[in-house]
Design brief:
This protein has 377 residues and is α/β, with parallel strands linked by helices. The chain has helices at residues 13-23, 63-76, 111-115, 129-139, 190-193, 201-209, 272-289, 291-295, 339-354; strands at 3-9, 29-32, 44-47, 50-53, 85-86, 90-93, 96-99, 121-122, 144-145, 150-156, 164-170, 174-183, 212-222, 232-234, 245-252, 255-265, 297-310, 320-321, 324-329. It contains nine helices and 19 strands. It is globular, with a radius of gyration of 21 Å. It binds flavin-adenine dinucleotide (FAD). Flavin-adenine dinucleotide binds at residues 9-15, 32-35, 40-42, 54-59, 149-150, 184-186, 189, 215, 217, 305-306, 308, 332, 339-341, 343.
């Protein structure tokens, strides 16, 4: 029976940056990926024959985000962002475009998700996220196993009071053993993967109930051009139940691409009617602000992301699951920061806790979680 030093669950940016760092010290690692491709959200996709990013559209410039990008640049081995530039988000109202100054007294329920994209400064990308992923993957080629859904964490001595996590179940039947496990997949799913003796029913119910957000995405290829590069935040004409969407325009041969995003609670994210409702409103908002764009759409791509933020679970100060000192949680939703920043922050925290210098050991801008192992469990 082979025992890996580390199993990393999830081959998104979080899983692969961690795997790359650990791989420098031991080759005895395995990355398990549910899909038939590696890379998670930040992979290349095509729209009207053009290669575009599935994920990233905007990365804010703050002290923290710049430091996190330096960490990523070390892992990727090349510069990925340039110096900060100004972002002046605009909104559309009855009389045209104007600077976005806030939502006043009626912020949307997903205000926190939106505000990330409305920061006044951003770090422009110098290489595309799918290229970062390719570099990370090429270093880890034979260490990534796709079509491998981790369906259970399996413990020995579960009833004895000294449970030990020894292996995972993959695709419901295959067992893979390791000494250490790093979880870089959606936090909410941990409730399904851990037995009740580790995460009790109350904690699971809390995790299940916690408000988590998924994004509804609309990528458009159109022949009409909008020359501005800032973010646009579009609101409806009426205060209905669906909030605004945020998006921007990118240059493309023979036209232009714009990528729009709104949010939906994960509880209803499988309800096609609810998604259809959000999309309809997004299209209405785009048509109102950019009628030429709307009239010249040649191709569209619609999808709903996995959970991007939210979920509530108490971890130890080392970012392990309470009672399981060899299961580290690197999911971005475990970070107080959102999106890519949350991913990079959590990856750095886990690496630091594992003793793999991520260059942040003395960095006071990295949040430290309070030790609170069982209060709410
Ligand atoms: C469409 C979109 C737009 C975005 N836009 C921005 C943006 O503009 N700015 C920004 O900062 N951030 C943005 N983000 C968020 C950012 O891309 C993510 O925070 C980051 O990529 C998350 O990386 P990750 O590795 O944590 O998760 P993911 O990339 O989601 O990877 C998780 C991986 O785990 C796998 N997995 C899940 N469950 C299991 C299991 N049980 N067993 C094995 N494997 C499993 C999944 O298949 C997936 O490949 C966007 C994300 C999306 C999807």
């Amino acid at each position: 029976m082979h025992i890996y030093d580390y199993i990393i669950i999830g081959s998104g940016l979080t899983g692969l940056t961690i795997a790359k760092k650990i791989h420098q010290e031991t080759e005895n690692i395995l990355v398990l990926e549910a899909q038939d491709y590696a890379g998670g959200s930040n992979r290349a996709v095509t729209l009207n024959g053009l290669t575009i990013n599935n994920g990233l559209r905007f990365y804010p410039a703050t002290e923290l985000s710049e430091k996190s990008m330096s960490f990523l640049e070390t892992q990727v081995g090349q510069e990925v962002v340039a110096d900060p530039i100004e972002n002046h988000p605009e909104t559309y109202e009855a009389h045209g475009f104007k600077p976005f100054v806030g939502f006043g007294e009626n912020p949307p329920a997903f205000y926190d998700q939106l505000s990330y994209f409305l920061t006044q400064k951003e770090l422009p990308l110098t290489t595309e996220p799918h290229e970062w992923m390719q570099i990370l993957q090429s270093d880890l080629q034979d260490k990534i196993q796709t079509k491998s859904i981790v369906t259970k964490f399996v413990f020995e001595n579960l009833e004895s009071g000294a449970p030990a996590l020894t292996h995972v179940l993959v695709n419901g039947s295959k067992t893979i053993y390791a000494r250490n496990f790093i979880y870089a997949a959606p936090l909410k799913d941990l409730g399904l993967l851990l037995p009740d003796d580790i995460l009790n029913q109350r904690a699971k119910a809390k995790l299940k109930k916690s408000k988590a957000w998924q994004a509804v995405c609309l990528d458009l290829f159109h022949t009409a051009h909008v020359e501005k590069e800032n973010m646009f935040i579009l609101n409806g004409t009426t205060d209905d139940d669906i909030g605004p969407c945020v998006g921007r325009f990118f240059a493309a041969p023979e036209g232009q691409i714009s990528q729009w995003i709104s949010f939906i609670e994960s509880e209803v994210a499988e309800d096609t009617e609810a998604i259809g409702h959000v999309l309809k409103k997004m299209k209405r908002q785009i048509k109102r602000a950019f009628p030429d764009v709307s009239d010249s759409i040649k191709k569209e791509r619609i999808f709903v992301t996995p959970i991007l933020s939210g979920s509530d679970m108490k971890l130890t100060a080392s970012n392990t699951v309470p009672k399981v000192p060899n299961l580290w949680v690197a999911s971005s939703q475990a970070s107080p920061s959102a999106n890519l920043l949350g991913s990079l922050q959590q990856a750095q925290l886990v690496l630091a806790a594992l003793g793999f210098g991520s260059g942040i050991e003395n960095d006071t801008t990295i949040p430290v979680y309070e030790e609170d192992v069982d209060a709410d469990l």
